Amino acid sequence: MDYIHVKDMEFYGYHGVLAAETAIGQRFRVSITLAVDLHQAGETDELEYTVNYAEVYMICKEIVEGEPYKLIEAVAEQIATRILATYEGRVKGLRVEMIKPDPPIPGHYREVSVELTRGEFQ
């Protein structure tokens, strides 16, 4: 299996359980790994045989900067669902990591994140 990685995309959204999160908003980072057969794209040098990662970026941007969700799990699920539907048959599987670098919880840590995997991965 071949993979396309789009790492550390950064967006500003209004997701969270606390009122302050939905009022003020915060930064979110998203990393995506797509399982795709890239053999034909490599041989032909044609975009039609791969996944346009500029479009993947825009899907992530629309979802993260769009409708607020309480849970980052829900945001990650929306991203996975949309990418799989958009590239049905081409994307065999994907991994979405949704990162909340500054959650409003006390303590010292770098970030919190969820990671979900859908479809085929080796």
TrEMBL record:
What Gene Ontology cellular-component terms does the record carry? cytoplasm
Q: What is its EC number?
A: 4.1.2.25
Q: Does the keyword Lyase apply?
A: yes
Q: Which Pfam families match?
A: FolB (PF02152)
Indicate what this protein is called per its UniProt record.
Answer: 7,8-dihydroneopterin aldolase
**Keywords attached to this entry:** Folate biosynthesis, Lyase
Q: What are the residue boundaries of the Dihydroneopterin aldolase/epimerase domain, all occurrences included?
A: 4-118
Function description: Catalyzes the conversion of 7,8-dihydroneopterin to 6-hydroxymethyl-7,8-dihydropterin.
Which catalysed reactions does the entry list for this protein? 7,8-dihydroneopterin = 6-hydroxymethyl-7,8-dihydropterin + glycolaldehyde
By sequence similarity, the record places it as follows: Belongs to the DHNA family.
The record's section on InterPro entries has: Dihydroneopterin_aldolase, FolB_dom, GTP-CH-I_C/QueF
Molecular function (GO) terms for this protein are: dihydroneopterin aldolase activity
Protein's organism? Viridibacillus arvi
Q: In which pathway does it act?
A: Cofactor biosynthesis; tetrahydrofolate biosynthesis; 2-amino-4-hydroxy-6-hydroxymethyl-7,8-dihydropteridine diphosphate from 7,8-dihydroneopterin triphosphate: step 3/4
List the top taxonomic levels of the source.
Bacteria, Bacillati, Bacillota, Bacilli, Bacillales
Asked whether the UniProt record includes Lyase among its keywords, one would answer yes
NCBIfam families in UniProt: folB, folB_dom
Q: What class of enzyme is it?
A: lyase
Name one process (GO BP) from the record: folic acid biosynthetic process
